[in-house]
Amino acid sequence: VSASSRVASRRHMGSVDAGAAMEKIRAAGLLRTRGLIGGKWVDAYDGKTIEVQNPATGEVLANVACMGNRETADAITSANTTFYTWSKLTASERSKALRKWHDLLMSHKEELALLMTLEQGKPMKEALGEVNYGASFIEFFAEEAKRVYGDIIPPTLADRRLLVLKQPIGVVGAITPWNFPLAMITRKVGPALACGCTVVVKPSEFTPLTALAAADLALQAGIPAGALNVVMGNAPEIGDELMQSTQVRKITFTGSTAVGKKLMAGSANTVKKVSLELGGNAPCIVFDDADIDVAVKGSLAAKFRNSGQTCVCANRILVQEGMYL
Ligand code: ADP
After folding, report:
1. Cα(264)–Cα(317) distance, rounded to whole angstroms?
2. How many angstroms does the Cα of residue 176 sit away from the middle of ligand 1?
3. Whose CA is nearest to atom 22 of ligand 1?
4. Domains and CATH numbers, the chain
5. Which parts of the sequence belong to the Aldehyde dehydrogenase domain (predicted)?
6. Ligand 1, atom 11: nearest CA belongs to which residue?
7. Please, are residues 311 and 280 in contact by the beta-carbon 8 Å criterion?
8. pLDDT tens-digit profile of 250-307?
9. Could you confirm whether 277 is annotated as catalytic?
10. Which one of 66, 175, 241 would you pick to mutate in the ligand 1 pocket, going by the greatest count of ligand atoms within 8 A of its CB?
């Protein structure tokens, strides 16, 4: 098979596969296109939608609700109400629901991976890997939350006792990027839910389908309505609503440095806790004494993993003179 005909036949297969894959996802009940607020799937209040495209072909996969400040305000209210019951459960009770969510993510590995490949463009093998990776955060934090111990600190006065009691902070706003449509969500939502916090997630508008499918499985797992809400659409409007809310106590974000700075500034007024994972700056350096085979393999992986779209993908490769020559 010549290179050109292989590309042509792959393209042909690609389009056939995309249709069959969407059918499979739909049949599993995992093609969700509306936002999730208080356990209900809802359209944008003004009925607006945005297209989700397959980046490999430009084909439209689905039209999803394009939400803004009003839907976000309702998602925050629902998360805030649910906080009072979810946070009162024992860590063990929350852990059971999270464990079930993990198991459902794993048992729907293929559909989730297909969705990710379709809307994000990463190869299927990497998408399958991301389901393992993404689900592992839910498993890890389900277990870890049972071990949120406090501290007893030696007092400075003899008749006092100093105790540290760790408590869930409240509603968390989680804003995530498109390069890891599942794992960036589970990495934020896992620890938050495990500790008793409730969450409003805003996935990237490029990759909302994976987020919505994962949220569907969370509901099936028994994570209560309102503990996990998903809104997507007008990013600045959703971001501003999260920022200005006094009920949102924490913002967790993975994305660009420019947006991270905006969120940090926007969080100042209500003194929210902020966790930011921002843009990378990743040189790959090959020294004279490197093993060339290992260096080539490592550099290729560093440059092209996830279609070259991770925050630590090499953005320049520096090779020492002795090796370069
Ligand atoms: P990247 O370059 O990794 O795509 P972005 O920062 O543009 O990073 O996007 C990451 C996430 O931030 C996406 O979910 C995007 O919709 C969201 N986002 C972009 N602008 C804003 C904003 N003004 N407020 C809140 N979220 C935003």
Report:
1. 32
2. 7
3. 236
4. 18-277 (3.40.605.10), 283-323 (no CATH)
5. 41-324
6. 177
7. yes
8. 999 999 999 999 999 999 999 999 999 998 889 999 999 999 999 999 999 999 999 8
9. yes
10. 175
